[in-house]
C-alpha cells in the first residue's frame, strides 16, 4: 500500500467504527421528518448565542475583550483560544438542515503540501486531489498560502473536511468542486472563484475508480444527489455557471457565513420543476452576505423546503429569491436592500409561472427588514399579514444583521477585508504563479497549529 506521507494519525482506529458503519449503510438522500423543527432549532441557537453575548456585555467592564458575536456557528469554536489544536470541534457547530454533516471528524489530519494538480487520474500524494478521493474520513488542512489551479473538476469522496483556517487558500480552474452521490462533507474557509468548464476526459473519484467525465458546467460547488453537506465561511465569485448548485435529490444542506459577489446566477436549488425527488430537498441558508455585482438566484428554488434566515442581501440587479415548481420558502430575519433601479425593487420572482398557479405557494416573510424600497411578495395563507409584518420590523433588527454577518466569507488571512492581490485576477492571468507549499514534518503539526492560532486570532478579531 502506498505510504501516505501527508497523513498524521490523531486517533485510534476504533474511533472510526461509528463512521465506518454509517458509510456502509449510506442510503439515498431523504427529507428530514420535521423541517419545521429544524427551522425552530436554528432560531433557538441564534437566540441562545445572542443572549450569551448580551450577558457577556453586561458582565464585562472591558467590551473589547468580548468574544461572542451572536452568531451561533462562530461562537461555537472561535472563542476557544486553542481552536487550532482542536480543529475538529468545528464539526459540532453546524446548524440547520446540514447540522448532521460530520466531515472528517474522528479521522486523520491530511496536510496539503503540494498545490499542483497535473494529473486528474493519478494524483500525487500531498496534493488536494489525492486527499479528497480517499475512502476514509480525513480532516484536510493547509500549512501555507496556496493557489490551487484545478486541471479538472475536484471530485470528493464522503467524510471529508476542507479546513482552510490559518492559510489563504484559493481554488480556481476546471470544475471546480463536485460532490456527487456522497455524504458528510464540510467545506470551510476557502476562496472559490474563476471556475470554468472542464471535462471530456478521465477523472479519478476514489483510489479504485476513475471514469470518463463529460463536460462540466463550471460551478464553484456542484452538489449532486448528496446529503449532509455544510459550506461555511467561503468566498465565492466569478464562476462560469453557478456559485453553488444543489440538484438531483440533494438534501440536508447548510450554506452559512459565506460571501458571494461578482456573479450572475448565484445559487440553484433543484434540478427541474418536474424532478420529483427534489420535493424532499431541505436547505438552510444562514448568515451569508450577498454582496456586490450579483444579478439573480440568491437562491432560485425548484421544489423543496428552503429556510433563508439572517442573511444580508445588498443590491441585486434582477431579484434576490426566485423559484418555480412550488417550493416552500421560509424567509426570516433577513435584510433586503434593493438596487436603485425602480424596476428591480421586488425581492421575489416566480419564474415563468402565472399568478393563478403561484398564489397558493408557501412563500413567507417574517421579521425581514426592507431597505431602499425593497418588497417581498408573499403567497399562500395570510399573504397580507406576512407582507405587512415584513415591512414593520424595527431598525435594530438591521443592526443585528450587521452583527451576525460581519465576518461572512473567508476569515483571517486572505479575508474579504484584505487585498487578495494577484489571485483576484483569475486562473488564466499570465502573471499568476503557482503557489509553493511548505513541506511540514509530521512532528511539527502541533507547533504549526499553535502558530496558526497565535497568528490568526488577532486578525479575526479585527475583522
Element layout with pairings:
Blueprint: E1 7-8, H1 17-24, H2 35-59, H3 72-77, E2 108-111, H4 128-132, E3 138-141, E4 146-150, E5 154-155, E6 160-163, E7 169-174, E8 177-180, E9 183-188, E10 191-196, E11 201-206, E12 209-213, E13 221-224, E14 227-232, E15 235-237, E16 244-247, E17 251-256, E18 259-261, E19 263-265, E20 267-269, E21 282-286, E22 289-290, E23 294-296, E24 300-302, E25 305-309, E26 312-314, E27 321-324, E28 328-332, E29 335-337, E30 348-350, H5 355-358, E31 363-366, E32 369-371, H6 383-391, H7 396-405, H8 445-462
Pathway: Glycan metabolism; pectin degradation; 2-dehydro-3-deoxy-D-gluconate from pectin: step 2/5
Domain Pectate lyase: 145-342
Family: Belongs to the polysaccharide lyase 1 family.
Short description:
With 463 residues, the protein is of the alpha/beta class.
Amino acid at each position: 500500500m502506498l505510504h501516505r506521507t501527508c497523513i498524521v494519525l490523531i486517533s485510534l482506529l476504533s474511533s472510526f467504527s461509528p463512521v465506518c458503519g454509517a458509510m456502509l449503510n449510506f442510503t439515498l438522500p431523504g427529507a428530514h421528518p420535521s423541517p419545521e423543527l429544524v427551522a425552530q432549532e436554528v432560531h433557538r441557537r441564534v437566540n441562545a448565542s445572542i443572549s450569551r453575548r448580551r450577558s457577556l456585555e453586561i458582565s464585562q467592564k472591558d467590551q473589547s475583550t468580548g468574544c461572542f458575536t451572536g452568531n451561533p456557528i462562530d461562537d461555537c469554536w472561535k472563542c476557544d483560544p486553542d481552536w487550532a489544536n482542536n480543529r475538529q470541534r468545528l464539526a459540532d457547530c453546524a446548524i440547520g438542515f446540514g447540522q448532521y454533516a460530520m466531515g472528517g471528524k474522528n479521522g486523520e489530519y491530511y496536510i496539503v503540501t503540494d498545490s499542483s494538480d497535473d494529473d486528474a487520474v493519478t494524483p500525487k500524494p500531498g496534493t488536494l486531489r489525492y486527499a479528497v478521493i480517499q475512502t476514509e474520513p480525513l480532516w484536510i488542512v493547509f500549512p501555507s498560502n496556496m493557489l490551487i489551479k484545478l486541471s479538472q473538476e475536484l471530485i470528493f469522496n464522503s467524510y471529508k473536511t476542507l479546513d482552510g483556517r490559518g492559510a489563504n487558500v484559493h481554488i480556481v480552474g476546471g470544475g471546480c468542486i463536485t460532490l456527487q452521490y456522497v455524504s458528510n462533507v464540510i467545506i470551510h474557509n476557502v476562496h472559490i472563484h474563476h471556475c470554468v468548464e472542464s471535462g471530456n476526459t478521465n477523472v479519478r473519484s476514489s483510489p479504485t475508480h476513475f471514469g470518463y467525465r463529460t463536460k462540466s458546467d463550471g460551478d464553484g460547488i456542484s452538489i449532486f444527489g448528496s446529503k449532509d453537506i455544510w459550506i461555511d465561511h467561503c468566498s465565492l465569485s466569478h464562476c462560469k455557471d453557478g456559485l453553488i448548485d444543489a440538484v438531483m435529490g440533494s438534501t440536508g444542506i447548510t450554506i452559512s457565513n459565506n460571501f458571494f459577489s461578482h456573479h450572475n446566477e448565484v445559487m440553484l436549488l433543484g434540478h427541474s420543476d418536474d424532478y420529483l425527488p427534489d420535493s424532499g430537498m431541505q436547505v438552510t441558508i444562514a448568515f451569508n452576505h450577498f454582496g456586490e455585482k450579483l444579478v439573480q438566484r440568491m437562491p432560485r428554488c425548484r421544489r423543496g423546503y428552503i429556510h433563508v434566515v439572517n442573511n444580508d442581501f445588498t443590491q441585486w440587479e434582477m431579484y434576490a429569491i426566485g423559484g418555480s415548481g412550488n417550493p416552500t420558502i421560509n424567509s426570516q430575519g433577513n435584510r433586503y436592500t434593493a438596487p436603485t433601479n425602480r424596476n428591480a425593487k421586488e425581492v421575489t420572482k416566480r419564474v415563468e409561472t402565472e399568478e393563478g398557479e403561484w398564489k397558493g405557494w408557501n412563500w413567507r416573510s417574517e421579521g425581514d427588514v426592507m431597505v431602499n424600497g425593497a418588497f417581498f411578495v408573499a403567497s399562500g395563507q395570510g399573504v397580507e399579514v406576512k407582507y405587512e409584518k415584513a415591512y414593520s420590523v424595527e431598525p435594530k433588527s438591521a443592526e443585528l444583521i450587521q452583527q451576525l454577518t460581519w465576518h461572512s466569507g473567508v476569515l483571517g488571512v486572505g479575508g474579504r477585508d484584505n487585498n487578495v492581490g494577484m489571485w483576484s485576477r483569475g486562473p488564466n492571468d499570465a502573471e499568476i504563479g503557482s503557489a509553493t507549499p511548505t513541506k511540514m514534518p509530521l512532528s511539527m503539526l502541533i507547533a504549526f497549529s499553535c502558530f496558526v492560532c497565535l497568528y490568526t486570532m488577532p486578525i479575526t478579531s479585527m475583522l
